[in-house]
Known about the structure:
The protein is of the alpha+beta class. It has a single domain (about 5-140), classed as 2-Layer Sandwich (STM4215-like). Helices cover about 25% and strands about 35% of the residues. The protein has helices at about 5-15, 75-95, and strands at about 20-25, 35-40, 45, 55-65, 105-110, 120, 125-140. Strands 1, 2, 3, 4, 5, 6 and 7 form a seven-stranded mixed beta sheet that branches. β6 and β7 (about 125-140) form a beta hairpin.
Amino acid sequence: MNKYEALATWVKDNYESVNGWIFFNASTMEDGNSSIQTMESERAEATYNDGSTEVAFLFAIALIRSYDTEMSTLNTDAMAEADNFADWIEAQNALDNLPVLGDNEVVNSVEVLDSVPSIAVDAEQNLAKIQFNCRLNFLRRSKNA
């Protein structure tokens, strides 16, 4: 299983989304959709004498939710849902319930990088994309180790 499959499986098997489905690098602009979005390729943070490498892999969680310009609770509810998702990731990290990448790659942590999710609004469709960024930190063991 590659890191993309492992990340998607970890989220899908452990987090209950609003509509029960979480897309990977794809999503339609429909209320209730959630997705995991890869942001950039992985980067080496440190390399050890045996050739093993500490790696950081960035990804985002994006939620598509109804947006309201009136005095309803839609907008605050959507932001709270994003906060709950981020809290869930942090709780999984604290519990050491982390994605399993395989024999040569061991996840050390999953971090939420944003204290407040970003929001982009599609006023014509009354939809908002609420997104927060995360980092998967793992050790890639050298084949010589």
